[in-house]
Amino acid sequence: MHQQLLKLELTGFRTYETLSVPLEAEVVFFIGQNGAGKTSILEAIGVASVLRSFRGGNDRDMIRFGNPFYSITVDYSSAGKNSRQHVAFGRDPSLTQQKDARRMSLNGEKINRSSEFIGRLQTVFFSPDDIAIVDSGPAERRRFFDILLSSLFPGYYENLQNYQRTLKLRSALFKSNSKPDNVYLSSLDKELAKAGNVILGRRISFIKKFEPAFQKYVALISGSRDQWRIVYRPTILAQDERNYFQELEKNRSKDLRLRQTTCGIHRDQIAFLPEPAGSFEEQNPDLSRIASQGQKRTAALALKMAQYELTREVRGERPVLLIDDVLNELDSTRRKHFIHFLHEIGQALITTTDVDSIAAYLAERKDIRTLIYKIEDNHITLTNP
Amino acid sequence: MIPELERVVEQIAALPGIGRKSATRIAFHFLKQNQEKVEDFLTSVTQFHSKVEYCDECGALKSRHLHCSMCTPGQRNETLLCVVEQPSDIFAIEASGEYNGLYHVLMGALSPLDGIGPDDLRLASLPARVHKHPALQEIIIATNPSIEGNTTANYILSMMAEFKNLKFSRIASGLALGSQIEYADARIISQSLRARTVLE
Questions:
Q1: In this structure, what DSSP letter does residue A184 have?
Q2: Do residue B21 and residue A96 have CB atoms under 8 angstroms apart?
Q3: Which helix (H) or strand (E) element contains residue A16?
Q4: Are the C-beta atoms of B174 and B197 separated by less than 8 Å?
Q5: What pLDDT is attached to residue B87?
Q6: Is the pLDDT of residue B187 over 80?
Q7: Whole-model pTM?
Q8: Rounded Cα gap, residues A351 and A39, in angstroms
Q9: What are the start-end ranges of the E strands in chain B?
Q10: What is the SS3 assignment for A339?
Q11: For a tag site, which of A221, A317, B135, B167 has the least CB within 10 Å?
């Protein structure tokens, strides 16, 4: 079983005033020059899935210049049932609202909490920028797993929000008061421990399940030349909520001195280390320091392929793949492996600048339904041969 | 919009939960009414301000110079005390008809972002109230289910640790009546499962 997009409708999103694209096919290509508006289409579907931009932009930036709001409507089928998911952000002119707000609905039913919206439509986004997950600091890696865990386990998102909110309150308390009341701080820390403990447990157990899938794809793409372990390095190692709280207490004098929360899931690191372990002399032999560009690209690709596999496992359904300009970035061997991977998937939306890069794939896959759209200056035309 | 209307609309739209569209409708409603009715309305608002106060004992809203109905001896179940954030929360709980115990209004919740600490709330008087009501058995902490509300509940639990004979409880949160399980998020569902009740 797989999730399948049926139709996308946009209003005031990025450069699109309005757009309506049927998507009923196993593979949908969007072909166009850079800046033609291909990525925005994938981005919109991503926002309808996790309420965040894959590009990391904020909601305001996604509203088309001159429009009061953007709106995204996605029709899709999941578990044999058709659904319609709608999200809009900005000022709603019919309500004379002054402030920007987000509105969500599912099959016409209004949804108030984002945690009830996220994770219904499952997507995996492949982008040349994915290399940042393995190549930049710990924040990017945590972000990757946090977004994935949020979309797979809605309770995770709620805990993450609670954690971040409590962290904010804690630092406000440090700033406003040189000697905060100990009972007050403990009362806050109980909330921090409650959310932190759930997140920590979920991350550790998930990464254990994620690692073998990741390693499998790294081996596949690199022809078994690369091997990486994923190691979660917690700043608080706790068995339960009470334990987590006690660890926070131990760090309290240090936190008070530095006026910040020095340990917890917001400081944890996720390392990619070479296997076998002994073969590198570096002090900190993390992938970001010792791998070549090609190895990094392989690891980034494998992360997303593993995301696909774990999503399928957890949700019992194959997610939709959104593949942005990835094919041109890959050398011929990696491209071959990647295209091979596409054979086993459900639905994929693929953007590319030229038909040539997909010609081989199309020739190979006469068995499935494809749609080929050409995009020029935000005008979209179906050009199926 | 003419300036006279603009001024009224602006004032009404400043009220909580009212946008400019509703404000305009209310302004025109006033215009259609006779002068006397509008003055009645305004007088009731002005008098409201000068004729009510908060009870020194429990913090509930009461008429000035009259006894607080929530504190009148013999009127309420004195084995229960419910701690709430705002005086308006009392009306919501009373409307449910489920509760007939005593109240204690904190006048807010602990919130470092708003600079609200324990000294800014009606927390210090809570132990004294417990001493004053020897029949008391249970304190229900009904602060909002937010980080601030939970933190306040944690704080109360710590500061009241000396009262070993008292039971402390927290209001349940979970699935709302009328909601559909299919659309509810997993945390709410897990919370509802943990706080499940036996059917009799």
A1: H
A2: yes
A3: strand A16-22
A4: no
A5: 95
A6: no
A7: 0.86
A8: 7
A9: 52-54, 61-63, 77-84, 101-105, 138-141, 167-170
A10: helix
A11: B135
Element (H, E) at A370: strand A370-376
- Write down all domains in chain B, each with its CATH number in brackets: 3-49 (1.10.8.420), 75-199 (3.40.1360.10)
Distance CA A249, CA A263 (A): 11
Q: What share of chain B is helix, strand, coil (3-state, %, to 5)?
A: 45, 15, 40
Nearest to B149 by CA among A188, A161, A113, A246: A188
Identify the residue whose tokens are 């041109």.
Answer: A328
- Looking at the complex, does the CB of residue A116 fall below 8 Å from at least one CB of chain B? yes
CA A316 vs. chain centroid, Å, equals: 19
> What crossing angle do the helices spanning A293-315 and A182-222 adopt, rounded to 10°?
110
- B152 to A113: CB separation less than 8 angstroms, yes or no: no
**Cα separation, A79 vs A57, whole angstroms:** 31
Tell which residue, A5, A349, A313, has the closest CA to residue A152: A313
Lowest mean pLDDT among A348-357, B39-48, B72-81: A348-357
What is the three-class DSSP state of A136?
A: coil
Overall residue count recorded for chain A in this entry: 385
Calculate helix-pair angle for A332-342, A356-364, nearest 10 degrees: 40
CB-based contact B151 A191, cutoff 8 Å: yes
Candidates A86, A162, A183, partner chain B, best to mutate (most B CBs within 10 A) = A183
What is the pairing mode between strands A370-376 and A379-382? antiparallel
Write the ipTM.
Answer: 0.81
In chain A the domains, ranked by start, together with CATH numbers, are 1-122+317-385 (3.40.50.300), 130-315 (1.20.1050.90)
A183/B contact by beta carbon, under 8 A: yes
Q: Where are the beta strands (DSSP E) in A155-247?
A: 228-233
Residues 6+ apart with CB under 8 A from B139: B80, B81, B82, B83, B130, B156, B160, B166, B167, B168, B169
The count of other CB atoms within 10 Å of the CB of residue A41 is: 26
